[in-house]
Amino acid sequence: MTDEHYMNMALQLARQARGQVSPNPLVGAVLVKEGKIIGTGAHLRAGGAHAEVHALRAAGDACGATMYVTLEPCSHFGRTPPCSDALIQHQVKRVVIACTDPNPEVAGRGIEKLNEAGIDVTLGVLEDEARELNRIFFHHIRYQRPFITLKFAASLDGKIATSEGESQWITSSHARYDGWKERHDHDGIVVGIGTILADDPSLTARIPGGRHPERIILDTHLQLPLDAKVVIDQMAPTWVITSEEAPIAREKALKNRGVRVIRSHPRKLHDWLHILWQHHICSVYVEGGSEVLASFLQEKQFQRVVAYFAPTLIGGANAPSAFGGRGIPSLSETPALSVHSVDTLGSDIKVVLYRGGV
């Protein structure tokens, strides 16, 4: 078998922990000796054993083996001991790594440790796939800001409701289920107060075993009802981003019900996104409505777009589009996007696009 074969297995193992390890990266490991797999592992939760350790434990005797790992082994003491030390102690002969770790506490030091111990290191096997897997981790480490995904569901002509306001449901149950999986993969979910007042959503990941993202409501005047589902169900923490002028009494009432209130005007995206990142919310899924999506577009504060299109046409100048606001005045100012994937979900189409690189 080739290095690519075993590394692909390690990547598959890493993908199984999506939505479970933030703020840590997704990592998978495969240990091979004399052509046989003797141990596998994945990082399953933040603070838990790393992928390399799980694989070493499964193997028992790893002397002379080759370790395939999707990210450079750590070299520092965090919540767990350094994986590079464990590989050295178990006398692994060779380590094949997909890509280096951008974390300044690692960033080449793990590879350096292995080289100094006489372990043969191969770097760059399926590197593009490994970087794609950890786009969120690479972004939040490099920029100290959450990775932002903008999501909308619309008709083929981009309408998210009819001119009479009817919107449930434009897309099918297949698209909605996929959207719940997207929620599971993100640390936080953002909507405007208009969405809460209109629909009273729970904003949870309604999939078996799904992780619920922290709910972030943009609410300039603190209109969030005290009996809203995002306040009373306690399935996930709820944040409200509001202005300095919002009523203090209303803030106290929300705080008494466990809601976190940040006074930083909802349109000052840069400020409150950094606050969220400081609280380990490293990825944010923005579901709308159209004015909220428009503010992220206007400020070019996003890295990814997920669009679900239903095979229907609505038309009409008064029917709302996915992105409201004043829009971008010239084509030269629009953000450059690249299509990553196009998939069919039942009768709907899912398009994923990225803006720029990691």
Characterize the structure shown:
- This protein is an alpha/beta fold and about 350 residues long.
- About 30% of the residues lie in helices and about 25% in strands.
- The strands form 2 sheets. A 9-stranded mixed beta sheet has the order 10-9-8-7-11-6-12-14-13, with helices on both faces.
- β7, α8 (about 195-200) and β8 (about 215-220) form a beta-alpha-beta unit.
- α3 packs parallel to α4.
- The longest helix has 13 residues, at about 5-15.
- The model has no long low-confidence stretch (mean pLDDT about 90).
Descriptive labels:
alpha/beta; 14 strands; 358 residues
Topology readout:
Layout: H1 3-15, E1 28-33, E2 36-42, H2 51-59, E3 66-69, H3 83-89, E4 94-97, H4 109-116, E5 120-123, H5 127-133, H6 135-143, E6 147-155, H7 173-184, E7 188-192, H8 193-199, E8 214-218, H9 229-232, E9 238-242, H10 248-256, E10 260-263, H11 269-278, E11 283-288, H12 290-298, E12 304-310, E13 337-345, E14 348-355
Parallel strand pairs: 3-4, 4-5, 6-11, 6-12, 7-8, 7-11, 8-9, 9-10
Antiparallel strand pairs: 1-2, 1-3, 12-14, 13-14
Strand order of the largest sheet: 10-9-8-7-11-6-12-14-13
Structural class: alpha/beta
Query: What is the oligomer described by this structure?
Result: single chain
The end-to-end span amounts to 31 Å
Largest sheet at a glance? 9 strands, mixed
- H/E element string? HEEHEHEHEHHEHEHEHEHEHEHEEE
- Measured by DSSP, the beta-strand proportion falls in 15-25%
Number of helices: 12
Mean pLDDT: 91
Query: What is Rg?
Result: 23 Å
**Which stretches are low in confidence, meaning pLDDT under 50 for 5 or more residues running?**
none
Tell me the helix content: 25-40%
Tell me how many strands there are. Answer: 14
